[in-house]
Amino acid sequence: MVVLKANGLKKRYGNFEALKGVSFELDSGEILGLIGENGAGKSTIIKILTGLIEPTDGKVEYFGRDFGEFKEVKNDIGYLPEVDSLYENMNALEYLSFFASIYGVKDKRRIDELLEMLKIPANKPLGEFSKGMKRKVAIARTLIHDPQILIYDEPTGGLDPSTSLFIANFMRELKKKGKAILFSAHNMYYVESVCDKVLILKSGEALYYGPIDELKAGKKYVVHYRENGREDRFVTDDIKELNEFIQGLTASGGRIVNIYSEAMRLEDVYFALVS
Ligand SMILES: Nc1ncnc2c1ncn2[C@@H]1O[C@H](COP(=O)(O)OP(=O)(O)OP(=O)(O)O)[C@@H](O)[C@H]1O
């Protein structure tokens, strides 16, 4: 079931066009990764989706309903901003209880469940938590009202690999429970390992939107060669380019050391697209 649909989103800040007409959909039980270099427009999309700013043009629908009724769907969304400040003198239990009361969540077992799932100590002040632990508390906060849609702005940003992996695996578990997740990231590995679909942005435009498998379906060819006494590598996904390179190399007296094909990684495709 499509839970979120964005159609032709545009955003202008003064004369600057930060988004130039971006469209995508998100189904329940699906993870969509938003990638793009700094300033590509990821946070702008996320802020539009979470009602913090309005698009200059275009439409967002939740559960087939118009964005105009955003207040009604607010309880169905869990939002993790890129940076958020927690109440540092509260402990995790107090903090989550506070948000549970804001959302009108009566069943306190939800808090225990989240603390357990995210391995968060209940009684330690948040001010004494590491950056990764704070991020987990913020993630727990997004889940307190058991929303269907999760919108996370760089959930793994600035975290060490093992915490990032924990969060990536946690998102996978949420997906299994039928949650629809949209998240932005810089680290391609986490996008590649958890996403079903990706939206690659550059300067406010979608360079690619679709299933991640299709994007990586291609092969790349790697040539290790020796020329003028030094060894180097040539990589391409284009067979014509490969042939031209080999012809040029042999014509100039170079020698192929090894040649093989590799499956594409998201990182290769991404850099080929954005450059
Ligand atoms: N309030 C604003 N006023 C003017 N320009 C803005 C505003 N917010 C964002 N921009 C510009 O819009 C563009 C997109 O910004 P956005 O924050 O969406 O990028 P991003 O992809 O999230 O980048 P990052 O990875 O650095 O977080 C950038 O060029 C940014 O400078």
TrEMBL record:
Species the sequence originates in: Archaeoglobus veneficus (strain DSM 11195 / SNP6)
Keyword Transport: yes
GO molecular function: ATP binding; ATP hydrolysis activity
SMART domains cross-referenced by the UniProt entry: AAA
Domain of life: Archaea
EC annotation from Swiss-Prot or TrEMBL: 3.6.3.28
Coiled-coil boundaries: none
Key words of the record: ATP-binding, Hydrolase, Nucleotide-binding, Transport
Listed InterPro entries: AAA+_ATPase, ABC_transporter-like_ATP-bd, ABC_transporter-like_CS, ABC_Transporter_VariousFunc, P-loop_NTPase
Catalytic class of the enzyme: hydrolase
ABC transporter domain residues: 4-228
Alphabetical list of Pfam families matching this protein: ABC_tran (PF00005)
Name of the protein in question: Phosphonate-transporting ATPase
